[in-house]
Automatic annotation (TrEMBL):
It comes from Roseivivax jejudonensis. The keyword Oxidoreductase applies. This is 4-hydroxybenzoyl-CoA reductase subunit beta. SUPFAM superfamilies: CO dehydrogenase flavoprotein C-terminal domain-like, FAD-binding/transporter-associated domain-like. GO terms for molecular function: FAD binding; oxidoreductase activity. Its EC number is 1.3.7.9. Pfam families: CO_deh_flav_C, FAD_binding_5. InterPro entries: CO_DH_flav_C, CO_DH_flav_C_dom_sf, Diverse_Substr_Oxidored, FAD-bd_PCMH, FAD-bd_PCMH-like_sf, FAD-bd_PCMH_sub1, FAD-bd_PCMH_sub2, Mopterin_DH_FAD-bd. PANTHER family: OXIDOREDUCTASE (PTHR42659:SF1), XANTHINE DEHYDROGENASE SUBUNIT C-RELATED (PTHR42659). Residues 1-223 form the FAD-binding PCMH-type domain. Keywords: FAD, Flavoprotein, Oxidoreductase.
Length: 332
């Protein structure tokens, strides 16, 4: 790890100004940033610590919009009884995302901006990584292992998988992120925050230099109360998803009036399965319709040699999550 300067501004404007400087990186909980610095993937000239922006630590669940400050800790939000009651999928996506030690220091804002776990991105011994070294190629697609890679939203330049869990609960329920930077404050639909790799895998979000995520906002809808986050992984204690699904359902009698489905562990960005949702609206929620929704969710998947298993697994996870919600609502 090479030398770098360090600052801890107390005002959002000062933090944004410092973060716009060439070679600067923002740090909050540090659970991703420090890790990447230690393994040599990034080497910033300056770290801008935003933990002094204490106004960004609060959150509120009551009312018609949930609001979460970007510096709220994962563990604090996941364990809050009000969150658990109002939005189970959000709580579950947080406590299933990391070990207790990490959740105690990791922030919501940092979590949604975490970098891929692609082994070729994180191991600098591999020169071929278009995300880390633009134009160098993709080791995964050039004879490498692809069991951890994306089958949705990838490109010929990159099939790195977005690794987060919390993001699936956000994209499924129409979240927005508020950011602050040189141009003032703006609100970005969460579905537009992350960028599919295309020909420029090094560009991961639409954030401008110096922009800081300050708040995450979600409109409250009935399907939030009947929601869950189901995660299939190699080990139960702490691992990234092989396939996961955040789902929520609202019923009108015996038929589905609203449904939300987002996929994790399988795509290059947080992924909402809108076609699968459309297949369920106006239908009864049964094992048959849930499995059909799971199948539809992966209709456009592009099979890779090492990660073809994710198609069947992902479909099962979607169906399982939907039936889990039905069970919680008292259905058979």
């Amino acid at each position: 790890m090479r030398s770098f300067s360090y600052s801890s501004p107390g005002q959002i404007g000062d933090a944004s100004d410092a973060a716009r400087e060439s070679g600067a990186q923002i740090i909050a909980g540090g659970t991703t940033m420090v890790d990447l610095m230690k393994i040599g993937v990034i080497a910033p000239d300056a770290l801008v610590d935003i933990n002094g922006l204490s106004d960004l630590e609060g959150y509120a669940v009551a009312g018609d919009r949930m609001r979460f400050g970007a510096l709220a800790k994962m563990s604090t939000v996941a364990d809050d009884p009000a969150v658990i009651d109002a939005f189970p999928a959000l709580s579950e996506s947080l406590w299933k995302a990391a070990s207790p030690q990490l959740r105690n220091v990791a922030t919501l804002g940092g979590n949604i901006l975490q970098r891929t776990r692609c082994p070729y991105f994180r191991d600098t011994a591999y020169a071929q990584c278009n995300k880390r070294n633009p134009g160098s190629g993709c080791a995964a697609l050039e004879g490498g292992e692809t069991n951890l890679h994306a089958i949705l939203g990838g490109s010929s330049a990159c099939v790195a998988m977005y690794p987060g869990d919390f993001a699936q609960a956000l994209i499924a329920f129409d979240a927005e992120v508020v950011v602050s930077g040189a141009g003032g404050e703006r609100t970005i639909p969460f579905s537009q925050l992350h960028v599919q790799p295309g020909d420029s895998p090094e560009v991961e979000t639409v954030l401008e230099p110096g922009e800081i995520v300050t708040e995450i906002v979600l409109p409250v809808v009935p399907a939030m109360a009947n929601s869950t986050y189901l995660k299939a992984r190699d080990r139960e204690s702490y691992a990234f998803a092989s396939a996961s699904a955040a789902v929520g359902v609202a019923m009108d009698g015996d038929t589905v009036s609203d449904v939300r489905i987002a996929l994790g562990g399988v795509a290059s960005v947080p992924w909402r399965a809108t076609d699968a949702e459309d297949s369920l609206r106006g239908q009864p929620l049964t094992e048959e319709t849930a499995r059909e929704a799971g199948r539809i969710a992966f209709e456009t998947a592009e099979e890779l040699e090492g990660s073809a298993y994710k198609i069947a697994l992902g479909a099962d996870v979607v169906a399982g999550a939907l039936m889990q919600v039905k069970s919680r609502m008292g259905g058979e």
